[in-house]
Design brief:
The complex is a heterotrimer of chains A (377), B (252) and C (295).
Chain A: H1 2-9, H2 14-42, H3 46-70, H4 77-92, H5 95-101, H6 116-139, H7 143-163, H8 165-168, H9 183-202, H10 204-214, H11 216-221, H12 226-252, H13 262-275, H14 280-302, E1 304-306, E2 309-311, H15 317-331, H16 333-341, H17 361-372
Helix pairs in contact in A: 2-3, 2-9, 2-14, 3-9, 3-12, 3-13, 3-14, 4-6, 4-7, 4-12, 6-7, 6-12, 9-10, 9-12, 10-12, 13-14, 13-15, 16-17
Chain B: E1 6-15, E2 18-28, E3 33-37, H1 44-52, E4 59-64, E5 67-68, H2 74-80, E6 82-85, H3 97-104, H4 117-130, H5 132-136, H6 147-159, E7 165-169, H7 177-192, E8 196-201, H8 205-210, E9 213-218, E10 221-227, H9 234-242, E11 250-251
Parallel strand pairs in B: 3-8, 3-9, 6-7, 7-8, 10-11
Antiparallel strand pairs in B: 1-2, 1-4, 4-5, 9-10
Chain C: H1 2-32, H2 39-55, H3 60-81, H4 91-113, E1 118-119, H5 124-127, E2 129-132, E3 135-138, H6 139-161, H7 163-173, H8 175-180, H9 185-211, E4 213-214, H10 219-233, H11 238-258, H12 267-281
Antiparallel strand pairs in C: 1-4, 2-3
Classes of the chains: A mainly alpha (377), B alpha/beta (252), C mainly alpha (295).
Bound molecules: adenosine-5'-triphosphate and magnesium ion.
The site of adenosine-5'-triphosphate has 12 residues of chain B, from α1.
Chain lengths: 377, 252, 295
């Protein structure tokens, strides 16, 4: 928060502006290279890992656009991913397959078979539209109530998807999506997302959003429309999440409504917390750490041979460690001291025998983030 | 010279990295009262909160009735008989007037027997006797009282623990002069009953009319500490108060 | 008319479970600012305890109190070891921590009890269904309503008629000032976790007796119900939690009997849609101000 405000308040010249945008882009490229070599060492199946990593990074950048500029933690972004995935799947499914799998598709959907690019655009538009519709309900709230409602959004979308048999085959697996997601698609999408996120962050709309996040009342008196200031990042973030969903659909080719539910939201939130809610670079690092860890745990859970022994880690090791990491990250003394240092956060009375906290939810996201993130930009 | 009720030595405290109150000494005998004066931001609230235990002492020491309480928390100090009527009244708006009073009656007493249910009822009755308006409104929400009524409720609540030291932070803040006079009338009555008091005011002849001692804080330091009878003349006092001339300490 | 009465009865039974759930969450939210995402998973662990106790041959009258004790112990342990260490009363940090805790609890439960559903002990007497004038109600539902009534009454007395309750409400509103009245925030947090533990234990027994089986992943459903009821009622208000719980219960019962069959699957979604609409109209929920937080 402090860094942000200082950067934004200073007259922000053209060169530093370009630098601040170039640096996350650069970092994303460096990260790509790192993952390339890492994936190479891990299994030899480098493509798979790298694509998954890229899509994860895209997800976390998209989530950051919303969380970083509204201070609302969203548990429901998987809903936008699901919408993007299904939208992309429906418009790009080969017509022949449609007749067999989705005979009840309405109207023009039945006869179209879009290539990759337009299908991704459709994914973005569908997710953005959903956000624009449900958004006004979410952005009226703050704090835990908002978080609960984002979770509600996920539940609603999940059940509707499972129910809209004509469009989604209901609870059956949606399959046959062309496998067209490649390295080039994923990483151009990632670079695009990073660019959009950075541009938004320093645009006047982005500044207004952060203003509304820090102090809604003050923002309102300055003529900022708080609802719009939260809705815009939500729609933008949903569009990027929808894009990730589209890429995911073209990568997996087969999925179900439950492929996008609470369990799938966990790693993305972990990445966000690990990397910091506002630093795109940090988010990228979070994505790389969590994706790598996911690979390692998957490998361990599958088990391996040591001599004649078959060793396997406990099931659910990934979730167990992610959960523990989340707890430790937020409760770590580092994230506490950081607040105290700034003098505005007194430890809470219930926690030690001490004094009440500042209790400002928006500040707190930053504090967690700040304590943990790497280099800012 | 009787044993002091409260004695504070070299108290330093603050927020974050900034010391806000520095090297303040204060001593109070039973039944005695002191006015704590100073401009906005002088550190008055911080000082009384620290005496109540809400802020930790950075250095210095404090004893109450002979016990060292430097490290005690506010809960312990409340049970020992230190009561603070905080700045801005801090009425619990989600509790009724009567509940606000009841919560003020601390159940246990260190070195004193715990208040029995009968005692609590007695104190409640006493509060209603003092403030008939509270009795009228006792089942109404604490937040529905006017400013003056809230101040009375805050004082009544602070008295429910039968304290030996009452600290009142800006009792006349935001009150019409007539209402402020009522509040001071009450404080005078309490003084007559032998209660030791620290009264915080920004500046008030009313406060000086009530107390035995006066301490002026400026920038967190005590720049004047004198019995009311020996106070310098008005012009000097003003100077000390505002620090318009030199800032060396004036002590009588 | 019978149809309407039946819906009322079903709603009453569902609503009493949901009110208890929402109350359990709201107690802790009031003093600590925590909306506990792991609540359902803690209840699942308690249910597993009951299953284990039964499987070692203990009779139900012994299982019930032991389960309650276990639930209180778990709740206080989690409060002490996890949530109080967050070092802030900030709702978002606490929510994230509870999210992490939920993952850990589920993963550990999978590890310890396996993915398969375990039978939950349920005496046959409770499963009999009473038929009166075409109305149907199971013994279990009656027990459910009765237990909820007792707990609600007890909590009401505790919160409104005892010094401890006053202290709890005062801390929820303004912990700093409450300390001046010798109220320890720490003790109040412990107390609220203890109360939540009792409620969680009761829910664990009633809920899973009705469902019949328990799996490590049963918790999410419970948490979601509790969240919906809580948000309908308004965070931090005890009265609101009860109102929200019953509102959700009646809404679900009505949807279950009047919704066209092919839309039944959307029940939970519709419940959330109702919440969303309600929150747009009234962001603070429908709650009263019994345990209100001014934050
Ligand atoms: N919670 C806090 N955190 C940080 N600084 C604080 C805090 N409270 C007060 N201060 C600072 O401490 C100094 C003294 O404040 P204090 O409230 O004690 O003054 P005061 O004498 O009571 O003033 P007033 O007459 O306005 O009530 C001020 O400079 C203020 O900025
Ligand atoms: Mg003050």
């Amino acid at each position: 928060m402090i860094t942000l405000r200082l950067r934004a308040d200073r007259d922000f010249g053209r060169v530093p502006f370009l630098l601040s945008i170039a640096s996350p882009v650069l970092v994303s490229l460096v990260v790509v290279l790192a993952v390339l070599s890492l994936g190479f060492m891990l299994r030899g199946q480098k493509d798979e890992i790298i694509l998954v990593f890229g899509i994860n990074a895209l997800l976390v950048v998209a989530l950051q656009v919303f969380v970083g500029s509204t201070g609302i933690v969203s548990f429901g972004h998987m809903a936008f991913m699901a919408i993007g995935a299904y939208a992309a799947g429906i418009v790009s499914l080969p017509v022949g397959l449609k007749a067999a799998l989705l005979p009840d598709l309405p109207g023009v959907l039945k006869t179209i078979e879009l290539p990759m690019f337009p299908s991704l655009v459709v994914a973005m538009i569908a997710a953005a539209a959903a956000a624009a519709i449900i958004g006004p309900a979410i952005v009226r709230l703050t704090g835990p109530a908002a978080a609960v409602v984002t979770l509600g959004l996920l539940v609603i979308v999940n059940q509707v998807l499972r129910h809209a048999k004509e469009l989604t085959r209901g609870t059956q697996t949606f399959s046959g999506v062309p496998k067209t997601t490649t390295f080039a698609w994923v990483f151009s999408a990632l670079v695009l997302a990073v660019l959009v996120a950075a541009l938004f962050k320093w645009s006047s709309a982005g500044l207004k959003s952060r203003m509304a996040r820090d102090d809604p009342l003050a923002a309102e008196t300055c003529g900022v429309n708080v609802t719009m200031a939260r809705l815009v990042p939500l729609v933008l973030s949903a569009a990027l999440t929808g894009l990730a969903g589209g890429l995911w659909a073209h990568y997996l080719t087969a999925f179900q409504a439950n492929s996008f539910y609470v369990a799938q939201a966990v790693p993305v939130i972990a990445m966000l917390i690990l990397g910091g809610a506002t630093s795109i670079t940090g988010g990228m690092l979070g994505a790389i750490i969590v994706s790598t860890w996911a690979e390692i745990t998957r490998f361990l859970e599958a088990g391996f041979e040591v001599g004649s022994l078959h060793l396997a880690a406990p099931r659910d090791l990934g979730n167990l460690t992610l959960g523990l990491a989340l707890i430790l990250l937020v409760t770590s003394p580092a994230s506490r001291d950081h607040g105290a240092e700034r003098g505005d956060a007194e430890p809470c009375p219930a926690c030690s025998a001490d004094w009440p906290s500042s209790g400002d939810p928006e500040l707190e996201v930053e504090r967690i983030a700040q304590a943990l993130r790497g280099p800012v930009w | 010279m009787p044993e002091p009720l409260l004695s504070v030595h070299g108290l330093v405290t603050g927020y974050g990295p900034n010391a806000v109150v520095e090297q303040v000494d204060l001593s109070l005998c039973p039944g005695e009262s002191v006015a704590l004066l100073g401009v906005n931001g002088a550190g008055k609230t911080t000082l009384v909160s620290t005496i109540a235990g809400l802020n930790p002492l950075w250095s210095g020491s404090m004893t109450f009735r002979g016990d060292t309480v430097t490290k005690a928390g506010p809960e312990a100090r409340a049970t020992m008989g230190i009561s603070l009527c905080p700045e801005g009244r801090q009425i619990f708006t989600s509790l009724t007037v009567e509940e606000n009073l009841l919560i003020g009656a601390t159940p246990s007493r260190r070195r004193r027997p715990a208040a029995t249910a009968a005692q609590v009822q007695e104190r409640l009755a006493r509060s209603y006797e003092r403030f008939p308006i509270l009795k009228e409104r006792r089942h109404g929400g604490g937040g529905q009282l006017s400013g003056g009524e809230q101040q009375m409720l805050a004082i009544a609540r602070a008295l429910m623990s039968a304290p030996e030291l009452l600290m009142v932070d800006e009792p006349s803040m935001g009150l019409a002069p007539a209402v402020a006079s009522t509040v001071y009338g009450l404080l005078r009555e309490l003084k007559r009953e032998g209660l030791a008091m620290i009264v915080v005011e920004e500046s008030s002849n009313r406060a000086l009319g009530l107390v035995d001692q006066c301490i002026v804080l400026r920038g967190g330091r005590s720049v004047l500490s004198a019995p009311v009878g020996e106070l310098p003349d008005h012009a000097t006092l003003l100077e000390v108060y505002l620090g318009s001339s030199t800032s060396e300490e004036v002590t009588s | 008319m019978t149809g309407f009465l039946q819906v009322f009865l079903d709603g009453l039974s569902l609503g009493s479970s949901y009110s208890l759930l929402a109350l359990g969450l709201t107690m802790v939210f009031g003093v600590l600012g925590l909306v506990n995402f792991a609540f359902g998973d803690m209840i699942v662990w308690t249910a597993f305890l009951a299953v284990e106790l039964t499987s070692i041959g203990l009779p139900l009258p012994a299982v019930i109190p032991l389960t309650l004790v276990g639930s209180v112990a778990l709740s206080m342990f989690v409060g002490e070891v996890v949530f109080r260490r967050v070092g802030t009363q900030n709702p978002l940090s606490l929510l994230l921590v509870s999210f992490g805790l939920s993952l850990v609890l589920v993963a550990l439960a999978v590890q310890v009890f396996g993915e398969l559903a375990l039978m939950f002990p349920s005496p046959t007497a409770l499963n009999t269904v009473l038929q009166v004038d075409g109305l149907q109600i199971s013994m279990l539902s009656l027990v459910n309503v009765a237990v909820a009534a007792v707990i609600l009454a007890a909590l009401f007395v505790l919160l409104n008629r005892s010094r401890l309750g006053l202290a709890l409400r005062a801390t929820a509103e303004n912990a700093r000032t409450a300390r001046l009245m010798a109220v320890r925030p720490k003790s109040m947090v412990r107390l609220s976790f203890a109360i939540t533990g009792v409620i969680g234990g009761v829910i664990a027994l009633l809920w899973f007796m009705k469902v019949g089986t328990v799996t490590p992943r049963s918790g999410l459903d419970i948490t979601l119900k509790a969240f919906i009821a809580l948000v309908i009622g308004g965070l931090g208000s005890a009265r609101g939690a009860v109102a929200g719980g019953f509102a959700l219960g009646f809404a679900e019962a009505a949807l279950a009997s009047w919704l066209p069959v092919d839309l039944r699957g959307l029940q939970q979604a519709l419940a959330f849609v109702v919440v969303v609409i309600l929150l747009v109209l009234r962001p603070q929920g429908i709650g009263g101000r019994l345990l209100d937080v001014s934050r």
